[in-house]
Amino acid sequence: MVAPMLAPSHLELREALRSGATPFGHQPFAAVAKPLKQWYSGQRLAQALEAYFQTARARVTLVVIKAPAT
User: Fold this and answer.
1) Domains of the chain, residue spans
2) Helix-helix angle 29-59:10-19, to 10 degrees
3) Tally: H helices and E strands in the chain
4) Is the Cα dihedral 19, 8, 1, 44 positive or negative?
5) pLDDT tens, 24-52?
6) What DSSP string describes 37-67?
7) I need a surface site. Which of 6, 22, 30, 55 has the fewest CB within 10 A?
8) Rounded CA gap, 10 and 21, in Å?
9) Are 36 and 22 in contact (CB under 8 A)?
10) Which residues contact 45 (CB under 8 A, 6 or more apart)?
11) Is the entire prediction scored with pTM above 0.70?
């Protein structure tokens, strides 16, 4: 599941750059391809991690057990 997030296609990167939702503004793709790939991969991993923790919270139950008095 993680491997595709680490290797986005050039098409995905170009679409992300065109959307204007990146910190790279309207720079040419060739000039920002490597840092854009790193940023894009980081964003996707962060979203996946957040989704994982959201679903994990729904399944986790905490039980507090008091220590016996000594």
Assistant:
1) 3-59
2) 90
3) 3, 0
4) negative
5) 988 899 999 999 999 999 999 999 999 99
6) HHHHHHHHHHHHHHHHHHHHHHH------PP
7) 30
8) 16
9) yes
10) 2, 5, 6
11) yes
